[in-house]
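#onboarding

Welcome to the new folks! Below is a worked example of what a typical request in this channel looks like: someone posts a single protein sequence, and someone else replies with the predicted structure as tokens. Don't worry about understanding the tokens yet, we'll cover that in week two.

Example request:
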Amino acid sequence: MSQESLPSDGGPEHPDALPEYAERVLEVAELIPPGHVMTYGDMAEWLGEGGPRQVGRVMALYGGAVPWWRVVRADGVLLPGHELRALGHYRAEGTPLKEASRAAEGHVPRVDMRRARWDGGGHTEGHT
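Example response:
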């Protein structure tokens, strides 16, 4: 997926500048309180633009400087390849987890979406 797949914002003024949509996604990621998560779809809905794939693309390209572990898949499965790092953050922040069954590959827990999901309440000043 190329950058053109992100919602259009007229292009950055400076070539090294983040696209406006990426900046907005990263701002929302920073608003998510410790111990809580939002799904990629939740973020797109909150922003009123793009979709889960566009949010995922932004997080993959630019998310390293924000609490990326707080943006998750809707099923609560940890980000492949980053499970242990994410798990460390979740445990440090007290994020509700569901322990994996013994049959689950790698026995890695997942986020308890019912308890950990954040709806963006209390930070509506950034909502557009």
